[in-house]
Amino acid sequence: MTTSAEFISFEELEDVIHLVNKVHGYDFNEYSRASLKRRVSRVMGLRKLSLFELNNRLVNDNDFFEYFLKEITVNVTEMFRDPDFFNILREKVLPYLSSYQQINIWTAGCSTGEELYSLAILLQEQGLLGRSLLYGTDVNSDVIDHAKKGIYDLKNMKLYSENYRESGTRHSLSEYYTAMYDAAVINQNLRDKTSFSIHNLVSDGVFNQFQLISCRNVLIYFTVSLQEKVIQLLYDSLQPLGFLCLGSKESLRNEAIARCFKLIDKKSNIYQKID
Amino acid sequence: MIGCSAGGFSLLHNLILQLSKNYPLAVIVVIHRSRKYESRLEKDLTDKGEIPVEKAGDKQLMERGKVYFAPADYHLLLEPDGCFTLDFSEPVHFCRPSIDVTFQSVSDVLGSKVIGVLLSGANEDGAIGIKYIGDNGGLTVVQDPEDAEVDTMPLSAIKLTKVDLILKNEELFNLFDEIYRIKVTAANFNHL
Hints:
Largest interface: A-B, 27 and 28 residues
Number of strands of chain B: 9
Oligomer: heterodimer
Number of domains of chain B: 1
CATH superfamily of the largest domain in chain A: Vaccinia Virus protein VP39
Mean pLDDT of chain B: 93
Number of domains of chain A: 2
Number of strands of chain A: 10
């Protein structure tokens, strides 16, 4: 398997960014160059495109642009990925949330929905699903369509079940989905509490107020200045005393914002808005 | 940059312990490790050795005289402005962090200023990376497969490309020393 870092140079990447912004209005200017270069190169490799062909398709082919958008964003996800994270949520965060009449949860950068459904399952475990609404957003429509269906490869459920078990549950993942041929369909009662839509963290604003926001392994693809802007957006979207969950190697960046949060768990990188 | 996997850890350990406090290069290390084993490796090496050893952080500026390890379960990249970037895309050769990914990323930014070292390991991760470094004018070094505890990784690099140096363990230690001396001498010349 060839890793494809080599099909486009940094200079050529700037041109592609400029082009995409001009033609489609998507601004990748504050994306981290190193990871974006790899992703664009990957698309070129997958479709065997030269730089000229890439630019040409980006300008002239809207379907290709949707594909491009889907493939350059990183959509690697699993249900209950990072079992420790879910364990800490169950122990330290959910008890707080249980004091609310209405619980709103947002996964920013939800990809194909696995994390959001995992959160729904956690809430149901604790008898909180009834008063919860879970929102999942991402920048491209393909993954959002997939997430809405709540149908996953049955083959993956074994891994997801292990993850779930490791998160400290006394339940079994199979309680929450139905197997149909080689697919696993998330139970209707869980799906009824979820809402998936398109939202671009770069350009779109606050659309609701939440008690829990999860934005994990999304910020790393942004420059520091964009990370700060997004963290501000997430802060503005949080209810007072709401919780913010970041990826394990991500941080709040800005000292001024960091002071508005209390660290709830260092390893799982969970914060509570206190100011 | 050092890429290392099964069988190379104790050699790597000793190579790092030998580095002096003001080592004239930044040293990036990629070892295959999974999330499950979040270790105190970096802290242990810092305590025992002279040179500071840490996990590379997202958007952290890379500096000379430090050793940076790729954190478990993330790919480690380098930005044109000299900062690290972490990346959570698909594993490469079933590995995340992948040696190929870091070797290529750093080579893209630093070209001929890169020295890539590949040690013992059980899969082919690193072979393409070493070739990439060489193609971009960097210096490529592979542990002699006869010395390597698991020779798959060094062998696949040697099979894929013409490697500049194939070194026995002792010679690897000498290489790091040599780099130090050359750099220090060059710095002295510049003061004249």
